[in-house]
Amino acid sequence: MTNAIIKLLDWMDIKGITKFYVAELLDMRLCAQIKSIVSKKNNLPYSNNNSHNKKVLFFTVQGRPNMLPVIEGLLAHSLNSRGAYSEMIICDRILPVCDLPFVTTSDAELLCKACGTAAKRIYSSFKLPYHFFSQFINQHQINKAEEIVDSIKFEDYFGFEYLGVDIGKHVYSSVLRYLLKGSIGNDNFTKSICREYMKSAIIMAQISKKIIEELRPDSVVMHHGIYCTTGIFAEYAKKQGIHIVVFTPAYRKNTYLFSHNDTYHRTLQDESIDNWENLSFSEQHRKMLDGYLDSRRWGSQDFISYHPNPLESKLKIIKELGLNVSKKTVGLFTNLSWDGQVVFHDTAFSSMVEWIMETISFFIKRPDLQLVIRIHPAEVKSTVETQQKLYPLIRDKFPDLPDNIKVVDSRSDISTYTLSELVSTALVYTTKVGLEFAIKGIPVIVGGEAFYRGKGFTYDADSKAEYFSLLDNLSNLKKNSPELIEKARKYAYYYFFRRFIPFNYTINRTWNNVVGINIKNLDELRSGRNKYLDLICAGILENKPFVIDTSEI
User: Fold this and answer.
1) Strand, helix or coil at 57?
2) What global pTM score does this model have?
3) pLDDT at 127 (0 to 100)
4) Burial profile 305-317: b = 16 or more Cβ within 10 angstroms, e = fewer
5) Kind plus residue range of the DSSP H or E element containing 88
6) Closest CA to 398 of 360, 351, 352
């Protein structure tokens, strides 16, 4: 019934604000289910008499979309049943601006109010204690934040530190997300947005300090761990010696990726190869991996799919792009211009856009080679459309591209996977498809900080000189050896199956919108009832690895 209503609204092209409030009505139905579950007789002990003596703080912040308060409410009760004491933190409109995309719309004020209301409603239904941001800040401190912002020159924003936190980098990432662009200009509008985020960041640091001083949690659980809210709180809490757990929905449906003390993007990049290289990789595991990788062409096992009807005919793709099949073809596969810079630190290039432009300049001088640029479809096919699209940027800089350079726009339904089968080498910045290409035997040159670089099956450029040296020697980059393919497959299995932890307690409309809960009573959250939930709770309470044992898969 719920999905049918949402589909009807989509079909009618109803405004986002209407959908938002319809979602609120659907949330009331969800909350009624939560209340029913919580009120049922169960043997789940409440948290004040805890054997672990662990206080866990869920830094939820937002109630819209509703995935966070629902998932974290279930996790809180799971931890409480194991002897912990859980509290929740949510925003109540005290910040001038936040990290959610809807702050860019004309309905921002109404949506902001509804966001905090949704989190409060859900946690009240779960009968969990919660606190608002406003409890940890006063008007004098807000005025002080205003004075501090006034004292900072715009050119000093992104290097600014406050209370021991690198405020500037969080402001930078949040502004990129707000603008949905890969770079920040110095026009008056952009400066005004940066100022609002700088003020929010300073207020957030003040709130973080007070929360830690008053609540003194042993562990903090949060989503994503970046931007001006969770990024600043995570950094401040870590500096105070607080254990941080960061999670996010993974690509596979009903799975989540958890990491200790940093966003998962960086922990994946920094972890030791020993974590996966020598682990068991049975025939059953290989079949599971192959089945999943095959499904990714259409996204049938994932929450997000950008190509429901992909163009997969090689002959049609060759004809549509006008490819010269006699030339060595190199594929360049982008990610979103703003998203990659939010998470990763650039290496050889200052940005993905610079990487693309300098790569095009290289191939302009190499007519013997053919370059096909596949712009990420999420530019236009994601929830929020990117405002700095790559195709116009490329055309502005290179209005007359030579015939050996082809650009596949983000709107195209050409299959990225079929396109990869037409290239001899793949160039990537941070996009995860580079891992899948390496498994296919395609040599992958990494120009940015993809999470799979440094694992031994890609060519990783640490400088421009190294990157262009690799391009100069493309003829020497042979198809990946069986040993490299095996290494890439082992890592892919580790990543997609051992790090993606199943959490099947919710019924989702999309990855971040929950329409129902898949339990009858809270006893189902007790220790010993679900091995994956036990693993998550042990990670939060005992700092154990968030990695599934191969014998349990």
Assistant:
1) strand
2) 0.91
3) 96
4) bbbeebebeeeeb
5) strand 85-90
6) 360
